[in-house]
Amino acid sequence: MEQGALLKKSGERLLVVLGKEIIAEKHFRDITRVLLFGNIQMTTQVVHKFLQLGIHVAYFTMNGSYRGQLSSVSSASVYTKMAQISHWSNKQFLLALARQLVMAKIQGQRYVLQKRRRGISTKNERLQEACNQLEKAIQQAGAAPSTAVLRGIEGNAARVYFSIWDELLPKEFPFEKRSRRPAHNGMNSALNFSYTLLLNEVNSMLELYGFDVMLGFYHSIRYGRISLSLDVMELFRPLFIDQWLLSLARQKQIQAKDFYWDEQSGMYFTSEGRKKFLTLYEQWHKEYELRTKLERVLTGLERTMLKGDVDAFRDATEEVLSHLL
């Protein structure tokens, strides 16, 4: 969407207007969410229509940093949030949930390495050793005596996992190591941006289900942190984002020219690179059926909170993984 564009309502259609020209239009029934980057404005009529239809709107800076959202009042049952809060003092219950989450995440990371090894070398010893270490980490996570120990296991697994990425990526995408903010290279920039988009999706779905997104079971609570959203996002990082980005790079659907370097804030998508990337993201979002898989996991988490039994969440995570492993 062009900078300076205005979103206007015309009957049951959303118009994107730049100056006096209509540059795009779409029926409201075909819109599920809206992502706005930089200087894009909406009329009051559009805001009211989005709220009426429950269309989630997220605001980002031009560089992809999340700024906030517009969402309608949730009609979800208050009992989900009450049950969630009631479990807060039950540390063993929270630990059991966290174990299942981390085990599933590492299993997803191991799958990504196993899948992406095809076409490089089945005799790659470093890759095989990394897979073996991740398998051990899964077992360790299942027996972790505390959340602090679990975080250490997850952190070590992440280092092992990302240490192999240089061997999975084409030469135009040197990875070196995972860098968050600032991103030191194009692939880390793509990871950061993709995780931000994923987090926004997870957060809006959790609110729709009636969860308190600030009250996580794995990420610690901090002022302003959407800890539960960060928790749930962990499950989908490897299988929704990581494997897809590796595929995009190896198929040259994203290239080094899609990024630029800023001396003060690191690597970012160019304007054209971001447009292309968001189109690819929307295509993958539909192909992967992210919303359906998120609904399955959140339904399991909801049942777990209401019944006080981790089995429903475990079954949901295993089902989502089984569709891809």
Helix content: 55-70%
Main sheet strand line-up? 3-2-1-5
Give the structural class.
alpha/beta
Look up the CATH topology of the largest domain. Answer: Four Helix Bundle (Hemerythrin (Met), subunit A)
What's the CATH H-level superfamily name of the largest domain? CRISPR-associated endonuclease Cas1, C-terminal domain
Number of strands: 9
Low-pLDDT stretches are: none
* First-residue to last-residue Cα separation: 36 Å
Q: Which value, in Å, is the CA radius of gyration? A: 21 Å
Task: Provide key terms for this protein.
endonuclease activity, hydrolase, CRISPR-assoc_Cas1_C, nuclease, alpha/beta, Ribosomal Protein L15, Chain: K, domain 2, Four Helix Bundle (Hemerythrin (Met), subunit A), 4-stranded mixed β-sheet, 3-stranded mixed β-sheet
